[in-house]
Structure formats: structure tokens, C-alpha cells
Amino acid sequence: MAEMIEIRPVIQSDRAAWAALFRDYMVFYGVTPSDAVLDTTWGWIIDPDGPMECLLAVKGDRVVGFAQYRAVPETLTGGWFGQLDDLFVAPKARRDGVAQALMTRLDDIARDRGWFKLSWITADDNATAQRLYDQIGKASSWVVYERPIKD
Q: What sequence ranges are listed for the domain N-acetyltransferase (predicted)?
């Protein structure tokens, strides 16, 4: 029998388990893990008035995934939507329904808060994530641009 997946908000005592997964997430995207970034991101998440929240996926006694998200105002509608910033599942827990369970819980949160949509991005070479996202959402017609700001 497969282990149940519990999806719950992060709490202070989850710091070490979250940080281990977040380091792996950073490495996956080619970013050198940094204690300063971990501290800042954790601060944003754990502060009740902070800009983002985090759900954890737990199987047994192991944290196996996270979804970090935030509310965003949308000027064209005067409404709010949810922005999923980061979704990560530990390699050994992939294909066990963890990402789907995180997204389902995020759907519930969006409905409860009156958000009119959920939005997220992924790297254009992340085919694994795109296979999941193609099943649960649709690609946007918007093109994302970035402009680095230099000192």
C-alpha cells in the first residue's frame, strides 16, 4: 500500500527539512546554494505578514516536496491571483503524485481566497515539469521577459 501524502503549511520546526529540499531545488536550476538566500527566503515564508507562503508534502515522517506561492494583484481585473513561484519534489518521491497533491491543495487555497487563477512558470528545458503542467493547466499566451538591473 502506498504511503499517504500529507499536504500542510510549513511551520518553524520544518526549517532543516525545507532547507535541504530548497538547496536541491537551487542546484537543479544551476544556482549555488547560499545561506543568505536560504535565510531570506525562509524569513519571507515563516513571517505571518511576509510576502509568500509554503506548503510541504510529507510522506511518513519525510518532507518530500514543497510549493511556494503568493497572492498577486491584477490591475486589468482588480482581482487577485495566486503565483506559484517554486514547486519541487525530491527525486525519490517523483511519480508518486506529490506534485499533483501540492497543486490540488493550492487549488483549494485559491478557491478559498477568491483568486481567479493560478499562474506559474518553468524553465523551457524542464520537460518533466511541462508534462505535468500540460495535464493540469494550459500554457499562457504571454511571453516572459527579464531585464537584469545593474548597480
A: 5-151
